[in-house]
Amino acid sequence: MHLKLTTKSFRLTLKHPFTISRSTRTFQDTVIVSVSDGIIAGYGEAIPYPYYNITIDLIEQSVLKSKSIVENAFGMHPDVLWKLLEPNLKDDYFTLCAINCAYWDFYTKSHNKTTRSYFGDASKKSPLSDYTIGIDSIEAMKQKIIEMPWPIYKIKLGTEHDVKIVSELRKITNAVFRIDANCAWTVNETLENAIKLKELGVEFIEQPLNLDDWEGMKQLKSECVLPLIADESCQRYEDVEKCAEGFHGINIKLMKCGGLTPALKMIKKARELNLKVMAGCMAESTVGISSLAQIAPLLDYIDADGGMLIKNDTAIGVSLEYGSLIYPKENGSGIILLH
């Protein structure tokens, strides 16, 4: 049977301008990839991301390059298809991810199962997702917390007054705080900030230093009073082993690593190295979030709030209620497109 690989582009509008240490955005373009046999369709998502040199044009070119392989892949296991596609997409793991997630969704729907049931015990409880508070004025950040009561917040930092921000936010909530500095701190700033942040109930710090500052991270791992989670430093499977030298855990992003297939390998490797495992999202729709949620039962931490940060979602699927992942009854990854 012949499959069809197609794409559709959308512009997602963010509920609030979203600021991290290196950029601010008010919208996010996205490309939804579909793999279909004419009856059953599976969906995945890729977003253009200048920091990683990913553009809409590149995504479209990558899909075209992959078309003949995917359209002749009926019955093939998703892991086998990933290995066939990867050599042509070494410069674009975002599209590789979208195709891999779409094909996993299609494949598991075709077998009348949920995607997560292929990865282990689907009844195992998933960790609670955090909700992200982007950099803003302290009053605006407080307002976002008041608007969205939540058990765990990820707070983006990288300003001149980071500890003050957390101190002020702590006055209005007893929720768990996680800090994401997005490469904005030095070794000394991290060591000093961590002492104060620990007193303010922070659980861990994500990516304090530049992604290739391995010497600095090794020093931090031995001296920092809070656990450290790699994000920008841990993009692909090959990075996991190196991250064990400077971090206590890794944050897997499906688009950076190339999809669910390599994410599973990264989780296995991280467990062998005694690392904590988190998986996270970017500003993406419920298509990407529903794919991500399929590995949630295998994780220690998850950041799956991408769909909650946008006004005009493209799909329904896995949703969040006060941090808990709510899985729909549908097979596959549970994604139903709205447009």
Properties at a glance:
single chain; 339 residues; alpha/beta; Enolase-like, domain 1; 8-stranded parallel β-sheet
Strand percent estimate: 15-25%
Low-confidence stretches: none
The strands making up the biggest β-sheet line up spatially as: 4-5-6-7-8-9-10-11
**Element order: H for helix, E for strand:** EEEHHHEHEHEHEHEHEHHEHEEEEE
How much helix is in the residues?
25-40%
Largest sheet: 8 strands, parallel
Query: Which class best fits the helix and strand makeup?
Result: alpha/beta
Total number of domains: 2
Number of strands: 15
**Number of H/I helices:** 11
CATH superfamily of the largest domain: Enolase-like C-terminal domain
The whole-number mean of residue pLDDT values reads 97
Rg calc:
19 Å
* Oligomeric assembly: single chain
Structure description:
It is a single chain. With 339 residues, this protein is of the alpha/beta class. The protein is 34% helix and 24% strand. The protein folds into two domains: 4-113, Enolase-like, domain 1; 117-337, Enolase-like C-terminal domain (TIM Barrel), CATH 3.20.20.120. It has helices spanning 56-71, 78-85, 93-110, 138-147, 162-170, 187-199, 214-223, 240-246, 254-257, 260-272, 286-292, and strands spanning 4-20, 23-36, 41-46, 131-133, 152-156, 176-180, 202-206, 228-230, 249-253, 276-280, 301-302, 315-316, 319-321, 324-326, 336-337. The strands form four sheets. It has an eight-stranded parallel beta sheet. Helix 1 (56-71) crosses helix 3 and helix 2 (78-85) packs antiparallel against helix 3. The two termini are 26 Å apart. The mean pLDDT is 97.
